[in-house]
């Protein structure tokens, strides 16, 4: 961890990205579609719906293929087999859509912000460690929290490392 921290100190990485930057990454890099939070709120606990101001759906097959690790792709294959053996009820929207997400057909990202400027909360529905790491980086961390021993900062350093920022 100390080595990652030393590499981090040499770089000029923003501690936080603005929501407008996140929007560009989500739409241009991941070709995601912005969807109104209320249209996907069935994927959230009712008490959490109001925490989120943005929602993105990632369903481009080429992008998804790049986002899933080999291990995640193997898990998706097993999940598809299990879901085929016990199909979801197409009349139950939540169950049907969760099955599609479990099968790797799409991912959903919810972004929360109190100030409308920076990410303060996020939720990834679906499994992609690469996307999760990227979201952690975009959410950033406060400068005063950038200390070894702080578990949030260490997760942030690992995300930077996993995506090659500290190479």
Provide structural commentary:
- The chain has 167 residues and is an alpha+beta fold.
- The chain is 46% helix and 11% strand.
- It is built from seven helices and four strands.
- The protein has a four-stranded antiparallel beta sheet, with helices on one face.
- Helix 6 (129-139) packs across helix 7 (151-162).
- The chain starts with a helix and ends in a 5-residue tail after the last helix.
Tell me briefly what this model is.
The protein is α+β, with helices and mostly antiparallel strands. It has helices spanning 2-10, 19-29, 61-67, 70-85, 93-102, 129-139, 151-162; strands at 33-34, 54-58, 107-112, 121-125. The chain is globular.
Keywords:
single chain, 167 residues, alpha+beta, four-stranded antiparallel sheet, 7 helices, globular
How many angstroms separate the termini? 14 Å
What overall geometry do the principal axes of the alpha carbons give?
globular
The residue ranges in which pLDDT falls below 50 over 5 or more consecutive positions are none
What's the Cα radius of gyration?
Answer: 17 Å
- The number of E-state strands comes to 4
- % residues in beta strands: 5-15%
Instruction: Give the class from helix and strand content and strand pairing.
Output: alpha+beta
Helical segment tally? Answer: 7
Instruction: Return the average pLDDT rounded to an integer.
Output: 92
Strand count, sense and closure of the main sheet?
4 strands, antiparallel
Helix content: 40-55%
Order of helices and strands: HHEEHHHEEHH
The strand line-up of the biggest sheet is 1-2-3-4
